[in-house]
Amino acid sequence: MKITAIKAYPAWVGFRNQLLVKVETDEGIHGWGESGLSGRELAVQGAVEHYREFLIGRDARNPGALWQEMYRSQYFEGGRVLTGAISAIDIALYDILGKALGVPVYQLLGGKQRDTIPCFATFGGGTTEELIDNARRLLDKGWSVMRTGSTSRPARPAGVFEPRESIGPTAERLTALRQALGPDPVIGIDYHHMLSVAETASLCQRLPPGTLDFLEEPIRDESPEAYESLRTMVDVPFAIGEEFASKWQFLPYLERGITQFARIDVCNVGGLTESMKVAAMAEAHYIDLMPHNPLGPVCTAATVHLSAAVPNFAWLEARVSPTEQLQAHDEELFPVQLQMEGDRYLVPDVPGLGIEVDEERLAGQQFKFWEAPHLRRRDGSFTNW
User: Fold this and answer.
1) How far is CA 71 from each of CA 63, 108, 242, 269, rounded to the nearest angstrom?
2) Any residues with CB less than 8 A from the CB of 253 and at least 6 apart, and which?
3) What tens digit of pLDDT does each residue of 56-85 get?
């Protein structure tokens, strides 16, 4: 089965751009993949077009070998742009292979280990009372795992953010939230790598024991040593890895016990081929996957198949819940997509990923240049978003 075409579609869907990739074959079977490098879709599209030049004519049934060729085919291997392109193509190849064999993708990954994929929801609130009310809305609808953010993170695309000034009010609200909800719900916070080591330690030291079940991405991830230092200062489990672009980036965090949840993103790390290797490494260190899933239904479908096939799994991020409707699951653009039942995704039993895209409608979608907020401190210096 030969690859005959690889098409990249950067398009505005819902509230953000998505970069979807379609791989076609000479047997009329096609597959869909998605890249996760939000805000730099055109860069990834260029990488896809480079890979396309030597993938045309190759056997689509060999995703593992094609992964190695794509990764090793340049002297300057690796990096998020290249692995974002590899991810999208790799996912599409698994979609093709599943359809060709008449089996769901999870069967290609070792088979199904669970029938449903439990999820966690994201919630917020302008006041402590609103925060607690939204958490109770989730509990009332059967959601027992939830995540919030810092209290003074600006809502506008641009603005001023002083990390240390967010610590006090965030700790106060988290403490009140836990007191209101009791000990049973799982509560986490995503600080979006906006703090320093010292600031993160200060935040955690202001929280009563048991307030948080996980702290997601409090600092930037380039330095495992910085995270390792932080690990000695706080007793809250870390959830790290959504920005990692290979098993090599995950390696020190898993081997040295720096993270307790692996926030793998199948659309960034290198697709399903690389994700299964990270999952095995994490399993060897008794670390569960907690996949990053903020994109569209192709990403969701690929992540659900991964989550179904691995033994070490905690919860999947879902951006559709009683408190949030951010995920761009356009039913006209994606006429076939995975379905949720309460707080979990149902694992599909159809061949491939279980998703289809209206390509004609997708081709007509406009791409819009979009930038993540460029935040500054009051002195004019840049800080993280």
Assistant:
1) 12, 21, 20, 12
2) 224, 227, 240, 241, 244, 259, 262
3) 999 999 999 999 999 999 888 899 999 999
Tell me which DSSP letter residue 167 carries.
H
Q: Tell me the catalytic residues.
A: 192, 292
Q: Residue 239 and residue 261: Cα distance in Å, rounded?
A: 5
- As a whole number of angstroms, the distance between CA 282 and CA 146 comes to 23
- Contact residues for 143 (Cβ-Cβ < 8 A; gap 6+): 119, 120, 121, 321, 322, 342, 343
Count Cα neighbours of 357 within 13 Å in the Cβ-side half-sphere: 32
Superfamily of chain region 107-349: Enolase-like C-terminal domain (3.20.20.120)
Q: According to the CATH classification, is domain 3-105 in 3.30.710.10?
A: no
**Beta strand extents in 323-365 (DSSP E only):** 324-325, 340-341, 344-346
Domains in the chain: boundaries: 3-105, 107-349
Please tell me whether the overall predicted TM-score, pTM, comes out greater than 0.85 for this model. Answer: yes
In this structure, are residues 36 and 265 in contact, taking their beta carbons and an 8 Å threshold?
Answer: yes
Least confident of 67-81, 154-168, 258-272: 154-168
The 10s digit of each residue's pLDDT in 340-368 is: 999 999 999 999 999 999 999 999 999 99
Report the distance separating Cα 36 and Cα 302, nearest Å.
12
